[in-house]
Structure formats: C-alpha cells, structure tokens
UniProtKB/TrEMBL annotation:
Domain of life assignment: Bacteria
Pfam families: Transp_cyt_pur
Protein name as it appears in the record: Allantoin permease
UniProt keyword annotations, A-Z: Membrane, Transmembrane, Transmembrane helix
Primary localization class, coarse: membrane
Organism for this UniProt entry: Actinomadura rayongensis
Length: 440
C-alpha cells in the first residue's frame, strides 16, 4: 500500500482532478530540455535554416545559416522560458492555462490545434527514428523500427516523471559525449567555403529555427507544472534547450556542407567516421524522448477537453495511432509545417506572456471549467497571426497565394529585415495589453 502511495505522490496524476506534484528540480528539467534540444531533426532538417527556395535549393550560405539558427534558437529559448514559468507558478498544464487567457470554452480552439500539431510531430519523430535506424541496420525492415519506436514511446508515457529522471541520470551524459565526438571527427574533414552566397534570407532562416523552439511552447507547462520553482522552470527551459539545439544544428549544418547540401545524405558524414555507427546509435535511441514528449502532451491536451479521461489510456491509444500513421505516411513539406506552427503559436505566446506577466495574470487567472470567455484575447491572437502571414505566408500554395492578394490589397511589401516571428509576437502582445487596459 505504501509503495503505491509513494508512486502516485511522485508521479503525474491520472486525471486533471488531482493536484500536480512539485518534484522536479532545476537539473531534472535542464536535462529534459537539453535532450529535447538534440534531435535528429537538427540533422535531417538543418537545410530549413538555409532558407530554401520553392525548388528546395538553399539560398543562404552555411555560415549565414549558422548565425541565423543561433539567433532564432536564442530568441526561441527565451520564448520557451516565458511559456514554462506560468506552469510552475499555477501548477496547471499548458492547455488548461489557456482557460485563464481565453476562457474555458474558447481554450478548446488552441487545444484542438495543439493536438493536431503534436500528432504530426509524433508521427514525424517515428519516421525519423525509423529512417535513421535503417541507415544503421538496413537489413531490418522499416516497419519493424517504426513499431519498436512506437512501443518504446508509449512505454515512456506511462511514467512521464520517471522518464524525465531517467534522462538526467543516464541519457544526457551519453548524448553529450556523442556530440563532442562527432564535432571532433567532422571538423577534421576538409570543409568547403561556408560563406559563399547572399545573406538576404537571414530572417527566414532565423524564423525556421525559432519555429522549432516554438513547437515546444504549447506543451512546456505540461512538464514545468511539476517544477519546484518558476525560476528553475524558466532557466532550465531557456538555457538547457537553446544550448543543445545550437550545438546540434551547427553539427547538422557542418554535415550538410560535407555532402554539398544534399539533405538526403546528411547522415552519411556521421556514419562514415570511425565508431560513427555506435555513437550515432545513441542519437537514434535518444530520439524516443521527442516522441514521448509529443504523445504525453497530446494526452494532457485532450484532458483539457475531457478532464476525467485517464492519461494512461489516452497515451496507449495515441501511441498506437501515431505508429499507424508513421507506417502509412512519409515526411512531406517540413519547412511549411514549421512555418504553420510558428504562425499559430508565436502570437499565442505573445498574448499569453503579455496578459500573464503584465495584465490580468498578475491578479490570478481563472482556470476553472466555467472560466468566462475573453474574446479580446482571441482578437489579439488573430492580429498577431495576420501579421505573421503578411510578412511570411509560408509555402502552402493556395494559402500563400491568398495572403499575397492581401499584401497587394494593403500595398504591403515584406522587407528582408522583417522577422515574421518577432513582429507577430510584438503585435499580439501589445494588442493583448491594450485590450486588457481598455477592459479595466
């Protein structure tokens, strides 16, 4: 009996009716976010920070991509920290927090969007794990790796806080050793000219890197609600994630330079060095923490819609679902997916940060199931979303053409210095503050 009680007191409750235990310290959270910052997407998707054109050809030189990625990641890390702190302060998961921002029923809108993007990310992660594993062991069928990754992902979600501690104790050290080893090996190779080309698409590349960080913003509080302090939650998320993502992306861009920009061969430089297979296997196995975080947060997001649903049942169903999707689909237009995520959740964070730290949140949000609607916050969010689309409509044909017509109607021409992320964040935040003051 006592063992069962200890387990429940030290682990995530099964439903939202139970309080969240405050058991994660700074180093637990730092290890968690640091591991999320090192992703196989940083290698396979490194080309996105080179601002590829419609034909998929990079427009930025490697050096410009590195600088753009570092700037975008640093800004994204600060935004991630802003999203992490409210969870620690209130003890509420991310989508429940939005009841205080938008109202209970209006919070269902971002919740559904978040569920959709998390299912997409979870599916992508299983595909990347399977493709990377195939590069190591090509005699094993792809479906076997997808199923194995899906099973491991689902198992981790059953005891999420235990999984976070597991990362700190064992996985983080192995990942850091593998990163250092590959840096030493790749820097010994003759690199081409890294600064040949124009820096004109700098902010497009920075926004692509920022969008990867932002993809974790709508789930950050799912984990930091278990943090002992808000300061630990902010620092661990902002610093832990940013540092390792920068290291991983630079490594991915160096590998991309060694294969002449061919993103389909970006894993080759890792596998061709001495002991490369063994160290790369560390990255492949560690990637399961990405899919675990996506599946667990999807379950917690669903609980905002159905508070008494058991997260274990939801996790098993979701783990099975993304495994099936990964068996059927392949990675499509990754850059357009990142752009869409950024255009939705960057302005959402602008509204949340402004209202929580400078507006009504200072007096305390109502996050109950009957929290009243706050349409003015929805309007502020929509304003930020519109600014993002005006500056960068993305790469989805019909959607981009529609916003191009709006640009023409407004006689607006985006400039190369404009960052869609920063402008939409600022506009959404200022609109939220103005709405809050007008209401008072």
């Amino acid at each position: 009996m006592s063992s069962a009680v200890e387990t429940r007191a030290d682990e995530v409750p099964y439903t939202l009716d139970e309080p969240a235990p405050k058991v994660l310290g700074f180093w637990d959270q730092s290890a968690f976010w640091a591991n999320l910052g090192v992703s196989l997407f940083a290698f396979s998707g490194a080309y996105t920070v080179l601002a590829p054109d419609e034909a998929g050809r990079p427009t930025l030189p490697i050096l410009a991509g590195i600088v753009a990625m570092a700037v975008g990641t640093a800004l994204g890390g600060l935004m991630l920290g802003l999203a992490a702190a409210p969870g620690a302060k209130t003890g509420q998961p991310a989508m429940v927090l939005l009841r205080g921002l938008f109202g209970a029923r209006l919070s269902y809108v971002p919740t559904v969007l978040n569920i959709a993007q998390l299912v997409g990310w979870g599916t992508f992660e299983l595909i990347v794990i399977a493709d990377a594993a195939r590069a190591l062991w090509d005699d094993v069928p792809r479906w076997a790796f997808v199923v194995a990754a899906g099973v491991l992902t689902t198992a981790l979600t059953i005891r999420p806080l235990g999984s976070v501690r597991l990362l700190r104790r064992y996985v983080t050290a192995a990942v850091l050793i593998a990163l250092v080893y590959f840096y030493v090996q790749l820097l010994r190779e003759p690199l081409p000219d890294l600064n040949h080309g124009s820096w004109g698409g700098f902010w497009t590349g920075a926004d692509a890197a920022l969008a990867v960080s932002i993809s974790w913003v709508p789930v950050a509080a799912d984990y930091t609600r278990h943090s002992r302090t808000s300061r630990a939650a902010f620092g661990a998320a902002a610093v832990g994630y940013s540092v390792t993502q920068i290291f991983a992306y630079v490594l991915g861009l160096l590998a991309l330079a060694l294969v002449a920009g061919d993103s389909t061969k970006v894993f080759d430089p890792f596998l061709n060095v001495s002991l490369g297979v063994a160290f790369f296997a560390v990255f492949v196995l560690r990637e399961a923490d990405q899919s675990f975080a996506n599946v667990y947060s999807t379950a917690v997001s669903i609980q905002n819609l159905v508070p008494r649903a058991d997260r274990r049942v939801l996790s098993v169903a979701l783990g099975t679902g993304i495994t099936v999707l990964a068996l059927v689909f392949d990675i499509g237009d990754y850059q357009s997916f990142l752009s869409l995520i950024g255009s939705v959740f960057v302005p959402l964070l602008g509204v949340l940060a402004a209202d929580f730290f400078l507006g009504a949140g200072r007096r305390g949000w109502d996050t109950g199931r009957a929290a009243p609607a706050r349409w003015s916050m929805i309007v502020a969010w929509a304003a930020g979303f519109a600014v993002y689309q005006l500056v960068y409509p993305g790469g989805v044909g019909w959607w981009a053409r529609g916003w191009t017509h709006v640009q023409s109607w407004l006689h607006f021409t985006p400039q190369s210095w404009m960052s869609a992320s920063l402008l939409s964040f600022a506009v959404a935040g200022l609109a939220a503050l103005a709405a809050g003051r007008a209401r008072r």
